[in-house]
Amino acid sequence: MHVQVVLLDGFDPLDVIAPYEVLHAGGVASSGAVSVELVSAEGPREVPSGAGSLTLRATGALDPERAGVILVPGVAGRFGEPGAVPGRDAGDGEWWQQPDEFISVLLDRAMATELPALLKAAMENPAVTVATVCGGSVILARAGLLAGRHATTHHQGLDALDAGGTHAVRARVVDDGDIVTGAGVTSGLDLGLYLLERERGPRIAHAVEELFAHERRGVVWRAQGLAPVGF
Asked: Which candidate, 204, 189, 193, 194, places its Cα nearest to that of 31?
């Protein structure tokens, strides 16, 4: 299983690093049956995160034709729109805000790149599973790729999924076949472990879980079995 972890401007570092490290460890535990790389829609480049001066390097271009998993993170920033929330005192009595601080602005920039088209091509490839952490599913939804599908995201973004025709699920990890989504930022650990279990078996996933001293939280939600009633 090869995993392409997508870097986009303003990415949330933990959305990337948590599943990357889990999946890399899975590769070690499975004698190379899992490989993982950092990619971007633009190809090799330094990609700034949304957390200060932290950057990571994409070593390749996102390839929707390559079999395996494509993992899309969310972005790090403030909720709301520039001008709609209080700003900061710049020292001259003026209040100001940097647009780059806002998740909405960073998502708009991602939608203006080749990323949506590449993700659409990946979704059309039966050999690819698309996974997301946190706001990564919002990117898919805004690209029109989650209509009628089940997915999750950060709890503050669930309404945005619903508004786009997605069946938003309040769960840690949601498995909808060729789309597997994780909720808030730290769910990247659980998502990575679940992908290892699903694709390479529970013994590999358990070995990595034990190595990281992290017990997965919650039930992986699927549209299967009896539907709950009464609550």
From this structure: 204
What is the rounded distance in angstroms from the CA atom of residue 138 to the CA atom of residue 173?
15
In a domain, 168, yes or no: no
Tell me the CATH number at 202.
3.40.50.880
Residue 37: which domain range? 2-76+100-128+187-221
Taking Cα atoms as reference points, which of 178, 184, 188, 175 lies closest to residue 219?
Answer: 175
Whether 230 is covered by a domain: the verdict is no
Residue 33's nearest CA partner among 180, 188, 207, 170 is 207
pTM for this one?
A: 0.92
Q: What burial letters (b/e) apply to 191-205, b meaning 16+ CB within 10 Å? A: bbbbbbbbbbeeebb
Q: Cα separation of 139 and 152, whole Å?
A: 12
Q: How far does Cα 87 stand from its chain's mean position?
A: 28
- Report the alpha-carbon distance of residue 210 to residue 206 in Å, rounded: 6
In this structure, which amino acid lies at residue 216?
Answer: R
Q: Encode the chain (231 residues) as per-residue pLDDT tens digits.
A: 999 999 999 999 999 999 999 999 999 999 999 999 999 999 999 999 998 889 999 999 999 999 999 999 999 988 777 765 555 555 554 444 566 678 888 999 999 999 999 999 999 999 999 999 999 999 999 999 999 999 999 999 899 898 889 999 999 999 999 999 999 889 999 999 999 999 999 999 999 999 999 999 999 999 999 988 877
Q: Are 45 and 64 in contact, with CB atoms under 8 Å apart?
A: no
